[in-house]
């Protein structure tokens, strides 16, 4: 195995271990020792790949973000409202089944980042990438449908991300109140805002 492949394997094992420890203990309580032990490496091996817990969580966010962006492209390829709603509902079912621990980790890191300038800048940059990609997809979708938005595509993207985050938080507390159908209907309604007439 080449050195680059070994390094990539080590990085992935450490990230998987960090995800498991953060999910089990939380971002603040999990230690580099815990993560190294779970990964089967020494603490030095973890530090050889990541500067600390902030770097680990940002790498996990990057990995998650790439998956989300790929899903986003597929979702917004649907030009009809009915197809978009169905795709969003199916995505919500999958996210509800698998996304709880990561969503909680994101919330915990979000609160930490709000009080730490470096973490805040790093997290904001990642959300900007997501908004930019979402805005481009919304603009393409509307252009294909011949629609003109009453808001800019970037404004709609910001609303979609904020609404989705809020619905996720409510789902954590009361899953029956925020169903996949509600999530899909709400997000579709924002993306298909009434167009100005005349």
UniProtKB/TrEMBL annotation:
<feature type="DNA-binding region" description="H-T-H motif">
    <location>
        <begin position="31"/>
        <end position="50"/>
    </location>
</feature>
<dbReference type="InterPro" id="IPR036271">
    <property type="entry name" value="Tet_transcr_reg_TetR-rel_C_sf"/>
</dbReference>
<dbReference type="InterPro" id="IPR039538">
    <property type="entry name" value="BetI_C"/>
</dbReference>
<keyword id="KW-0678">Repressor</keyword>
<keyword id="KW-0804">Transcription</keyword>
<dbReference type="Pfam" id="PF00440">
    <property type="entry name" value="TetR_N"/>
</dbReference>
<dbReference type="Pfam" id="PF13977">
    <property type="entry name" value="TetR_C_6"/>
</dbReference>
<keyword id="KW-0238">DNA-binding</keyword>
<dbReference type="InterPro" id="IPR009057">
    <property type="entry name" value="Homeodomain-like_sf"/>
</dbReference>
<dbReference type="InterPro" id="IPR001647">
    <property type="entry name" value="HTH_TetR"/>
</dbReference>
<feature type="domain" description="HTH tetR-type">
    <location>
        <begin position="8"/>
        <end position="68"/>
    </location>
</feature>
<dbReference type="InterPro" id="IPR050109">
    <property type="entry name" value="HTH-type_TetR-like_transc_reg"/>
</dbReference>
<protein>
    <submittedName>
        <fullName>TetR family transcriptional regulator</fullName>
    </submittedName>
</protein>
<keyword id="KW-0805">Transcription regulation</keyword>
């Amino acid at each position: 195995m080449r050195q680059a492949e070994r390094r990539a394997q080590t990085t992935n094992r450490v990230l998987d271990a960090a995800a498991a420890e953060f999910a089990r203990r939380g971002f603040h309580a999990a230690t580099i020792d815990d993560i190294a032990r779970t990964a089967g490496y020494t603490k030095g091996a973890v530090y050889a790949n990541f500067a600390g817990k902030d770097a680990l969580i940002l790498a996990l966010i990057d990995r998650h973000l790439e998956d989300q962006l790929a899903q986003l492209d597929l979702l917004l390829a649907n030009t009809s409202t009915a197809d978009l709603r169905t795709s969003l509902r199916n995505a919500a079912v999958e996210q509800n089944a698998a996304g709880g621990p990561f969503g909680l980790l994101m919330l915990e890191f979000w609160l930490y980042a709000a009080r730490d300038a470096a973490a805040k800048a790093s997290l904001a940059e990642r959300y900007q990438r997501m908004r930019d990609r979402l805005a481009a997809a919304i603009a393409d979708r509307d252009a294909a449908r011949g629609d003109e938005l009453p808001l800019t595509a970037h404004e709609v993207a910001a609303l979609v991300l904020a609404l989705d985050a809020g619905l996720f938080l409510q789902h954590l507390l009361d899953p029956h109140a925020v169903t996949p159908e509600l999530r899909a209907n709400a997000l579709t309604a924002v993306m298909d805002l009434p167009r100005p007439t005349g």
